[in-house]
Design a protein that fits this description.
Number of strands: 2
Radius of gyration: 21 Å
Helix content: over 70%
Strand order of the largest sheet: 1-2
Bound molecules: phenylalanine
Mean pLDDT: 93
Distance between the termini: 44 Å
Structural class: mainly alpha
Strand content: under 5%
């Protein structure tokens, strides 16, 4: 089902970079280490490996397959399966838009932190939050995303992802090496990698692994389906997915080494959770030698990872407006840029003087939990059910294996059709009970 005229990736490598750019994000550097630290360290790594190479891989293959087959964005793709499933696509667009809005708010903080450390004018998180800078940086981040997406898939998203990820690796490797040589780093690595075997039988830990896989691999929202829709190259989706997952895993693993080395070199608390990046690490950087150089580099690292992810989320509602309503890319990007900025304002102001709270919790945390723990898995489950049960099984099997030398047997696809949605539902229930 090739629709001519749809924009295409400039090259297959460019597609891989864009997808890796989407996957590698703030979730790898900031979220993964503390989730692993709280859930059994080395043992969590084992569980996570199992989850990403079964569930994560199946889901990613499903998204790419549908995108490549229908060559359109998520709402129209689901409509092509059955007209009545447009709402499921719309729900995915809504969740993605919501995540985009607070993800960009966090990137705004990261940008400010970079600017503060680069100019040597760092202040505490509290002081920073009370200023106007969170708003200013959020606006800058929204504008940057808008400009990249407006430039197009090939000359905007693909180029930025490629150079962004290369630069990212170029900064991450030396930073990790420096971290590992700090006094105390050994204990950090031990804490990170020593397995707590009791967690293997803990359903909460498995649920955490599923949640982390969803977020880190960028699956469940239709973002990768959208990227797959620009794939004109005759390339296999299964091996592409393996490459992307491998890269994402490697970055998460190394990020753990880096973060725990830094944290333990200062006897800081490894289970700090969400404030790790904005409170604990700055404190660490202020005490270590070379801290003045490491701090800005660390925030650039986060920024690069984050922007190559946020543009993938940004592109999803933009492509939906283009394909469903016939908007031009420029018009769609302007609308999404402004709307996401407005929608993200409460998140950006969560810790500010305005102090926006819902039942005592900061808005950003509420939105993050609601969308991450429930919104994302729910739309993901619905998508998996629609895509695997209502799309003809023969077509699905054929499309998964198209251009691929190694073929996935039809039997395995039958198993995945049941297992993938079921696993998401079980994860949701586990979270609800916990
Ligand atoms: N994978 C990104 C991260 O780890 C976040 C993301 C989720 C991006 C979903 C796109 C879609 O930070």
């Amino acid at each position: 089902m090739q629709v001519t005229g749809r924009e295409k990736w400039g090259s297959y490598g460019g597609f891989l970079f864009a997808a890796i750019g989407s996957a590698v994000g703030v979730g790898n550097i900031w979220r993964f280490p503390y989730v692993a630290g709280e859930n059994g360290g080395g043992a969590f790594l084992g569980i996570y490996l199992v989850v990403v190479f079964t569930f994560g891989l199946s889901f990613m293959v499903l998204e790419f397959t549908l995108g490549r087959y229908y060559q359109t964005s998520v709402i129209v793709a689901l409509q092509k399966i059955r007209k009545r499933f447009a709402w499921a696509g719309a729900a995915m667009v809504a969740v993605t838009f919501g995540v985009l809005s607070y993800y960009m708010a966090i990137l705004g903080w990261i940008l400010s932190y970079f600017a503060m450390y680069a100019t040597g004018m760092a202040v505490s998180f509290e002081e920073y939050s009370q200023s106007w800078y969170p708003l200013l940086s959020f606006a800058v981040i929204a504008a940057v995303n808008y400009l990249i997406v407006r430039t197009g898939v090939r000359s905007g998203i693909e180029k930025v992802s490629k150079y962004g990820i290369l630069l990212f690796v170029g900064i991450m490797v030396p930073l990790t090496a420096i971290g590992l040589t700090l006094p105390g780093a050994g204990e950090g690595v031990t804490f990170y990698l020593t397995p707590d075997a009791t967690v293997f039988s803990d359903p909460q830990v498995w649920a955490a692994a599923f949640g982390q896989a969803f977020f880190s691999l960028s699956i469940g929202m239709g973002v990768l389906l959208t990227y797959g829709s620009y794939l004109g190259q005759k390339r296999p989706v299964v091996s592409s997915s393996l490459v992307i997952i491998g890269a994402d895993l490697a970055v998460s693993f190394v990020a753990g080494l880096m973060i725990f080395s830094f944290v333990f070199s200062n006897d800081a608390n490894p289970a700090e959770g969400t404030t790790l990046v904005f409170k604990v690490l700055p404190q660490v950087f202020s005490t270590i030698e070379l801290g003045a150089v490491i701090a800005p580099l660390f925030f650039v690292l986060l920024l690069l990872a984050g922007i190559t992810s946020s543009i993938s989320m940004f592109q999803l509602p933009v492509s939906a407006l283009e394909d469903s309503l016939g908007f031009s890319r420029r018009k769609a990007a302007s609308i999404i840029g402004i709307a996401a900025f407005v929608a993200g304002l409460p998140s950006a102001l969560s810790y500010s003087a305005v102090d926006l709270r819902v039942n005592g919790a900061a808005v950003l945390d509420v939105v993050n939990d609601a969308l991450g723990d429930y919104g994302l898995p729910i739309v993901g489950a619905v998508f998996a059910i629609v895509a695997t049960w209502f799309l003809d099984k023969k077509i699905l099997t054929e499309q998964v294996n198209l251009y691929s030398r190694v073929k996935v047997p039809a039997g395995l696809i039958s198993v995945a059709r049941v297992a993938v949605p079921l696993l998401i539902v079980v994860t949701l229930l586990t979270q609800l009970v916990g």
